[in-house]
Design goal:
By secondary structure, the protein is mainly alpha-helical. It is built from 5 helices and 2 strands, in the order αβααβαα. The chain has a two-stranded parallel ribbon. α1 packs parallel to α3.
Length: about 110
């Protein structure tokens, strides 16, 4: 697995006042990684979703092939904040599956049983 995500500074670290990474650069890195490592698992990261939610969908169009949901139970999220905004959203799997279907992207899961 090769993960790329934009940098998101956390206020409780020495890098607190550094600028956030560029989400578009993240998409370029995903694309280049796909060309260099065609069989790699490349996630569309939660960090990309925090900075630019619409670009997380685009990540699948440029080479990402793994959706990384945040499954941390709500009661623990306050104790696990590696960057601001992590876990502050709920992933809507139906929305992703509709997107995958619309873009003719294959999935290994089926929401209907």
């Amino acid at each position: 697995m090769v993960g790329h995500g934009p940098f998101i500074p956390h206020l409780q670290t020495p890098l607190a006042f550094f600028p956030s990474g560029n989400p578009w650069l993240t998409l370029k890195m995903i694309s280049l990684t796909r060309m260099i490592l065609p069989k790699a698992n490349i996630p569309a990261t939660t960090a990309l979703n925090v900075l630019a939610p619409d670009l997380r969908f685009k990540a699948f169009l440029v080479g990402a092939n793994v959706l990384m949901p945040d499954l941390t139970p709500d009661r623990y999220k306050l104790h696990y904040e590696i960057y601001p905004g992590k876990g502050s959203y709920r992933i809507n799997l139906e929305k992703y599956f509709r997107f995958f279907e619309k873009e003719n992207l294959r999935t290994d899961l089926n929401l209907t049983s």
